[in-house]
Specification:
The protein is α+β, with helices and mostly antiparallel strands. It is built from 6 helices and 8 strands, in the order H-H-H-E-E-E-H-H-E-E-H-E-E-E.
Length: 269
Amino acid sequence: MERRQVSGPRPLARARAALAVATGCLAVAACGAPAAERPERPASPAPATSGATRPERPGTPSPAEAAPTPSTTASPTPTGPPPFSAKVSKVTRDRLRHSWRPGCPVPLGDLRMVTMSYWGFDDRPHTGELVVHEDAVDAVVTVFGRLYGWRWPVYRMEPVDAYKGDDFASIEADNTSAFNCRPATGSSNWSQHAYGRAVDINPRENPYVSSNGTVAHKNALRFAKRPVNAPGVINPGDRVVKAFQRVGWEWGGHWSGIKDYQHFSRSGG
């Protein structure tokens, strides 16, 4: 039996035509073809986002790794010296066994112990003691507070009782001192030290010089003339002299004849 040849479009073509009619799509190849037969569209690159990063070269650290993380801990700051301090207290007889005695021109009850800061020759802060009259406390604290702020050096500061009341021994030790119940040098009258209203500062660097230019302490010979450029030295017109002038105290370096470069007192004597 002979098979009849059927003319017309093949079944696949007929299916495509039917799909085009149903969807209204004339470009069958674009919209009606099975997925396997559709032409592939190149993939569009993903839109950039704020968090996107560029590909890194091999071995290159990412920005997060390269940038150091800011530290939240504050860097330590260098600590400076402690501020100047001064403590004032009454003086007991036991503290002044050698420098005070009955018959001194000032009662024991009028004297005060000033425990205060001073800047040393070793470029470090120290604490020393001066015994002064109660009415001299404010002036002394004011001036020594300025010296400390300037880091102007004081070699040593302790009551003359540490030397059994011996003024010569205290000077030999380059000790800055105040009260000592004694007469003025070369006089029978009381010194201002006997009232607690005088201070001797760095007596080696600032010696007592007699009218003929001699000094009693050999360790002070090189400091006998002024001006001298050295630590702890007091020169005419310098800031130490001016600091005492502001509180109404006079300098022994201004005396005529003898020069007492270490000496400051309220009345000049």
